[in-house]
Amino acid sequence: MSILASFLLFLHMIGLAGILAGVLMQLMTDNTKSVKVLLHSALLQLVSGILLVGVYEMADLADVNHMKIGIKLVIALAIVVVGFVNKRNPATKLAAAAGVLGVLNIGLAVFW
Length: 112
Ligand code: HEM
Known about the structure:
Elements: H1 2-28, H2 34-59, H3 66-88, H4 92-111
The protein binds protoporphyrin IX containing FE.
Protein name: Integral membrane protein
Organism: Nocardiopsis coralli
Keywords: Membrane, Transmembrane, Transmembrane helix
């Protein structure tokens, strides 16, 4: 079970990198794939996070801080929504918003 948790955390870190990569791609280049990178990474982050909580709770691997996870979940959902809107109508403001929310979630994950 702990190898599964490690694998999910690995995917969680890839998702994090993907969100920031998508944001920077969109802000710094005209690459049309940036919106997909951002949205798919946000979805990966959401799914890997939810599965991580499930595995941690099932295997009693660590105490999950439910308040922290709840707030991270809301922020991650907001990034997914922004990602969907940004895919339909790409806008630098939306990419920047996703970036700020992503960095906020990193801060919550690390400092709380
Ligand atoms: C943009 C969204 C997110 C970002 C940037 C993010 C970032 C991170 C980071 C950097 C860590 C590693 C923390 C450490 O090991 O010290 C982490 C761990 C974790 N994340 Fe996320 N996360 C996001 C969304 C979510 C969501 C939606 C959930 C669950 C609903 C979640 C659940 C977890 C869990 C269970 C861990 C491991 C235990 C812990 O450190 O609390 N994350 N996340």
